[in-house]
TrEMBL record:
Gene: leuS
Protein name (record): Leucine--tRNA ligase
Main location: cytoplasm
Organism: Microbaculum marinum
Methionyl/Leucyl tRNA synthetase domain: residues covered: 36-174
Domain Methionyl/Valyl/Leucyl/Isoleucyl-tRNA synthetase anticodon-binding: 708-833
Recorded superkingdom: Bacteria
InterPro entries xref list: aa-tRNA-synth_I_CS, aa-tRNA-synth_Ia, Leu-tRNA-ligase, Leu_tRNA-synth_edit, M/V/L/I-tRNA-synth_anticd-bd, Methionyl/Leucyl_tRNA_Synth, Rossmann-like_a/b/a_fold, tRNAsynth_Ia_anticodon-bd
Length: 869
């Protein structure tokens, strides 16, 4: 038969699907719903094949669920606001809008090449007024519902570019573009009150049992609930004069209070600010700390430094003990009370600090078996605190207690004395959404000198971005636009100013999945549609979004519930985080990156530049990225191998959660497999032509054997796809392919009995249907050759005949002296001696036996084997 020509066939089937609107989804469809979504892309320019993996995975699920009789929602859109567009405006002098929409057009073309079963009628772009106008309505509703707050917070300020910088834009304390040392500034900003939901967001993680454990753990850590105590120290100056204001600290280790040797406040603490007014040294220290920016990581990494204020804190239980009070760079203003007591013996940070400033190190927790008078701390803090292994020492009334009991005791004493109280804290902060930039959703409020903050009335929405912004000077283009911000107050009519901040782009991506349910609705969403479609049954995306995007979306749905847009709280029932696609990197001798197509691998294994013939340095496979040029374009693949080959390779190469290395030989292998499937189907059609095959009366052993293989694969592939184990699904498809191939080879040119012909056709049809979600174009083509009228995309999933699944083998656990050591897979009808022999041969059993002689073997038929020594 002739070769399969993917280039021609793929374009043709894509046209057929489009023209027949096969993947358009109606809301009023009686079938059970299934919502599958991949995290929508940022339109950065072009996609490479590495971007394709999660879309292809989602597509397999979508096509599979369609075949299983679901009404599938599988939409696509664009996360289209953001800084890169504004950078392009500055660097390339194109308008962010133009840049963004051009990228969207390019990337849409590219995505279409992948043959995805997407309902493009639901497409949306977050930069489109159609979308962001609804987002503004949401904001106004959230504001009215008390979910939004305006408060000051510290930001990274670039004094040259006159702009707020995100933490990632602060590099070694300097602005990424200007190179100027960053300052910390207090700025009035808009916040979503996500912390109101901290406990709820934490508790509900338990219900997300179809999420990866690591993501749930990351969310838990991010929310960071801790139980501790908030209490106050009396403060004295160097002469023993009591100060009016006590110092309040937060601790989770109140048990270590007798090991306290200093107190420290944040450089932004009111006490530090006050003292700095008449202390130039302290002011300089505060400025030095400010240069660290607001990133917690940077603060964590920096050397721990302090400034001695000359004040002392009075120990709450030992009035004769005075602790020096420092301003320290590692104490954050945003957490707890912005002030701590330090216990160097049991906290590494405090220990480093104590060693640097010559402060005492007093152990108060020690292993139960240690001699309290001899227990000392060297360079490592002793952080063990759990259970019966440690107890309190050097701690007056706490001596001998466990850490847990000591915590209780100290907390109770503070509460009795009225100087402190138990307190739950969360690491989670309110979500600051103000961005001083142009290319984002304008925050729909107006500042009036008389009325204060006034929400833009619904009738005046949307607040559109002005097109005629300029990007040639520092600062926020909306702020220095000549007219845009000048409006009359909607309340009193006086001259007022628009808010010029735009929203964090994470806001845009926190509800797009809800908008997809009724993408053209005049309101924010159609509540019935949202309640029907959500939660997303399967969400697929990168683990880099495991915390912020997912948490914000969870908050958003709760906020939308509060404002009446939905009855639901959790947006994503199932979550999958896929691995990345990697590729080798290539560099010339002078360090220039080369694209894969610019190099050539010679027969002797050396790699050279196609242009110069000079050797090229081949680097380890790394995540595909434009900057290192180790990318492959979908166009190039489609041209040479067809997209089905790329899809097959992406799915078959590794488990989907793991990284997968893209290689030319890998795609080539996938291409060969596609040709092989094609030949196989063509051969079977010759033996068992479409019309002529009715189910035979009698099915002989050869046909029966093939049918078992076929149905077992069908069963396994269904389960594998349900669990997103695509590589295993493909391995099971191979089992049928191999069985058919060997039967065809055996037959040679001979005749085939009708029952076997029939079973071969069933096998071929099953192969085609099972591989349909993975290689949909090839499968449609084969489906047609097999004589079907309709589209495979509309055909139901084949049905398993359970009788064919009854295993010929069983699995028996094998114990040695009652302890499970291995398991045995053996023929269901194997006799006693065969089982005994096989059990003794197992690696796990042999390891457990060592050289001990076997006394007895007990076989409980169909149940268990126990070896006694
Ligand atoms: C005394 C102490 C002794 C502490 C000890 C730890 C170990 P989590 O569990 O994350 O809530 N802390 C409190 N507020 C802080 C701030 N604003 N900036 C930096 N550190 C702060 O952490 C609570 C612990 O972090 C608190 O318990 C406090 O140090 C520190 F052996 O108090 B601890
Ligand atoms: Zn007013």
């Amino acid at each position: 038969s002739e070769r399969y020509n993917p280039r021609e066939a793929e374009a043709r089937w894509q046209r057929v699907w489009d023209e027949n609107r096969v993947f358009e989804t109606a809301n009023d469809d009686p079938r059970p719903k299934y919502y599958v979504l991949e995290m929508f892309p940022y339109p950065s320019g072009k996609i490479h094949i590495g971007h394709g993996r999660n879309y292809v995975m989602g597509d397999v699920v979508a096509r599979y669920k369609r075949a299983r009789g679901h009404n599938v929602l599988h939409p696509m859109g664009w996360d289209a606001f953001g800084l890169p567009a504004e950078n392009a405006a500055i660097e390339k002098k194109v308008h962010p809008k133009e840049w963004t929409y051009e990228n969207i057009a390019t990337m849409k073309e590219q995505l279409k090449l992948l043959g995805l079963s997407i309902d493009w009628t639901r497409e949306l772009a977050t930069c489109d007024p159609e979308y962001y106008s609804r987002q503004q309505k949401l904001f106004v509703d959230f504001l009215a519902a008390g979910l939004v707050e305006r408060k000051t917070s510290l930001v990274n300020w670039d004094p040259v570019d006159q702009t707020v910088l995100a933490n990632e834009q602060v590099i070694d304390g300097c602005g990424w573009r200007s190179g100027a040392p960053v300052e910390k500034r207090e700025l009035s900003q808009w916040f979503f009150r996500i912390t109101d939901y901290a406990q709820d967001l934490l508790d509900a993680i338990d219900t997300l049992d179809d999420w990866p454990d690591k993501v749930r753990l990351m969310q838990q850590r991010w929310i960071g609930r801790s139980e501790g105590v908030r209490f106050s120290f009396e403060i004295e100056d160097g002469d023993g004069a009591r100060q009016a204001e006590p110092l309040t600290v937060y601790t989770t280790r109140q048990d270590t209070i007798f090991g306290a040797s200093f107190c420290a406040v944040s450089p932004d603490h009111p006490l530090a600010k006050r003292l700095a007014q008449d202390d130039a040294g302290l002011e300089a220290f505060r400025r030095e700390c400010a240069a660290l920016g607001t990133s917690e990581e940077a603060i964590e990494r920096a050397e721990k430094k302090g400034y001695d204020t000359g004040l002392f804190a009075v120990h709450p239980f030992r009035p004769d003990v005075r602790l020096p009070v420092y301003v320290a760079n590692f104490v954050l203003m945003g957490y707890g009370e912005g002030a701590i007591f330090g216990c160097p013996a049991h906290d590494q940070r405090d220990l480093d600090f104590a060693r640097k400033y010559g402060l005492p190190v007093i152990p108060v927790v020690a292993p139960v078996d240690a001699d309290p008078s001899a227990f000392e701390i060297a360079d490592e803090a002793f952080v063990e605190k759990d259970g019966q292994a440690v107890r309190m020492i050097n701690s007056a009334f706490l001596d001998g207690m466990s850490v847990a009991d000591a915590k209780e005791e100290v907390a109770s004493r503070f509460e009795a004395a009225g100087t402190g109280a138990r307190k739950v804290n969360f690491r989670l902060r309110d979500w600051g959404i103000s961005r001083q930039r142009y290319w984002g959703c304008p925050i729909p409020v107006i500042h009036c000198d008389t009325c204060g903050i006034v929400a833009v009335p619904e009738a005046n929405l949307p607040v559109l971005l002005p097109d005629d912004a300029t990007f040639d000077r520092p600062g926020n283009p909306l702020d220095h636009h000549p007219t845009w911000k000048h409006v009359d107050c909607p309340k009193c009519g006086a001259a007022a100013r628009r808010e010029t901040d735009t929203m964090d782009t994470f806001v845009d991506s926190s509800w797009y999945f809800a908008r997809f349910c009724s993408p053209r609705d005049r309101d924010v969403v159609d509540r019935a549609a949202v309640d029907d479609w959500l939660p997303v049954d399967q969400y697929i995306g990168g683990v880099e979004h495991a915390v912020l995007h997912l948490l914000y979306s969870r908050f958003f749905l709760r906020a939308m519930k509060k404002t009446g847009y939905t009855g639901l709280e959790e947006p994503f029932r199932g979550l999958f985080t896929q691995g990345m696609i990697t590729h080798e990197t290539y560099r010339t001798e002078n360090g220039q990156w080369l694209f894969p197509e610019e190099v050539e691998r010679r027969d002797d294994g050396t790699v050279v530049s196609r242009e110069t013939g000079r050797p090229v340095v081949v680097g380890q496979p790394e995540k595909m990225s434009k900057s290192k040029k180790n990318v492959v374009s979908p166009e190039a693949i489609v041209e040479t191998y067809g997209v089905d080959a790329a899809r097959w390779f992406m799915l078959s190469d590794t488990p989907p959660e793991r990284d997968s290395e893209w290689t030319e030989s890998g795609v080539e292998g996938a291409w060969r497999l596609i040709q092989r499937l094609w030949r196989l189907v063509s051969q079977v059609v010759e033996i068992a032509p479409p019309a002529a095959t009715a189910r035979p009366e009698r099915i002989g052993p050869a046909a029966e054997g093939l049918r078992r293989t076929t149905h077992r694969a069908l069963d396994a592939v269904s389960r594998d796809i349900e669990q997103l184990r695509f590589n295993r699904a493909i391995a099971h498809i191979y089992e049928v392919v191999n069985a058919v191939t060997s039967l065809l080879n055996e037959k040679g040119n001979g005749e085939v009995a009708p029952d076997l012909a029939w079973a071969l056709r069933e096998a071929a049809e099953t192969i085609v249907r099972l591989s349909g979600p993975m290689v949909p174009h090839l499968a449609e083509e084969c489906w047609k050759v097999l004589g079907h009228e309709g589209l495979l995309a509309d055909a139901p999933w084949p049905v398993v005949e359970p009788a064919l699944l009854v295993e010929a083998t069983i699995t028996l656990p094998v114990q040695v002296n009652g302890k499970r050591r291995d398991e045995l897979v053996i023929a269901r009808d194997a006799d006693q001696s065969a089982i005994e022999e096989a059990a003794l041969g197992l690696a796990g059993v042999q390891r457990a036996l060592g050289d001990k002689p076997v006394r007895k073997i007990i076989v409980v038929p169909q149940r268990i084997v126990n070896v006694v020594v």
